[in-house]
Amino acid sequence: MLRSDVRAVAALCAAAGTVVAGGRAARADGYSLHVLGAAQVAWTDNLFSVPEDQAGVDLPPREGDVYYQLRPGAMATYETPRSMHVASYELEANLYTIHDEAWSLQHRLGWQGFFLVSPRAELGGSLQLSSGQLTTLSTQGTAADGSVIGLPSGESRFLSLDAGQNLAFTASRELRLTQGARARSFSTTDAFAAESLGVEVGVSGGADRSWRHSAVGLQVAGAFVTLERRREMVAPETTDQVNASAILSWRRDFGPRWTSMIDGGMTAIVPLDEGDQLVLHPTVGGQVGYFPEWGNGGLAVRRAVAPNLYLARNTITDSVVVNAWLPLPWLTDDPLLPRLSVQGTVGAQRTRLIDTSTGETESGFDVLTGDVAIMYAPRHALSLAVRYQHLRQLSAEDAAVDVLSYVRNTVMITATGRFPERMAAQIPLRASLRVDRGDTTPVGEEVVAPDGGAGGGGGGR
Questions:
Q1: In this structure, is residue 453 part of a structural domain?
Q2: Which DSSP state fits 232?
Q3: Global pTM?
Q4: Each residue of 371-384: pLDDT tens digit?
Q5: Is residue 94, in this structure, part of any structural domain at all?
Q6: How far apart are CA 58 and CA 55, in angstroms?
Q7: Bridge partners (DSSP) listed for residue 413
Q8: What is the pLDDT of residues 100-152, one digit of tens each?
């Protein structure tokens, strides 16, 4: 990293100090300003995620290193009687003890909004822009986020834009209608000097009919997708298509803590380029969720068909994931305010590529991951964590994509915080697996139940 980059980090930290001073004046008048901060020290045994067999591949040797991650940032929140807004910026600096040539920066700018359009309708929106150096050591997410993602070997420059909108309308006590829209773009230049661009613009609609303990839902979606890949000495590959899907789901609550869902449907990849083939694939999934008074856990098994914008390819993904974030009984007398918790994800994912020119499925790669952390939170907005992460990626020898096989183990110690602690506005959790929506954040008329008590419920983090 250049010295100018180091000065940029120092300048942002100094600016954050200024926001701290101003943040003390945050009052209950609808807005608040906050300083965000995270620091991490970690050791990894495979810094560049290099495969053991490097025959014919120009990559650095497999090496370990101690690295440090600094994530200073700022956040502003604003609330009116019918809307909530949260805007944030975060800079991520990755610094390495031995390999200073691997120093990198990432920038993330985001906004989320929530609007009560009417007593029966609510609108949500989001926008996120990020750029910088994408590495396999990115650990911004928590150990319990439940994701298993195939990543590149080595480093890539990237630019990502993601905008979303969702509308929910409660037609009656039993019937809920939803509409959504999304636009996203992801461009990269990877370690092999290959460039890729993925663009997706789509809309969706759905209906959910519930009874006391069960619900049936239908979701339809359509999107225009452009995928482009450019490599040296090779003609560029460009694919334009329309993806359409329909999914029918059934949900069932088993008491106040357990719930389940099964779904099935069909996805069609409709080519817009001459010579490409129509592709039809079934999709299926199952999920079990556990929602105690605080925390959550779950098991998900799924087959999905979707474009991978990073790889600029259409993919079929089979996955099984177990994740949890649960309190430990020590260091607190109140189970709703735990100071000590355990979180983790264990999962496997099998990804195969779809060749739209022939309609056939090609070889791809597999990902196995294990991620566990013990977290101590002496205050609501301050936490310390010790975390271990194992990642194993296996790529087929004839895979038509630049994803290599590697194994990596990483041990991390992380501290995160926010000041001031109190936020004037917080985007409510409205997506729910449960039929009774007991794990959502109550808003509007839901805040006070008919019996005079608080509406909603469920455990959050």
A1: no
A2: T
A3: 0.84
A4: 999 999 999 899 99
A5: yes
A6: 8
A7: 41, 386
A8: 877 889 999 999 999 999 999 999 999 999 998 876 566 667 777 767 776 65
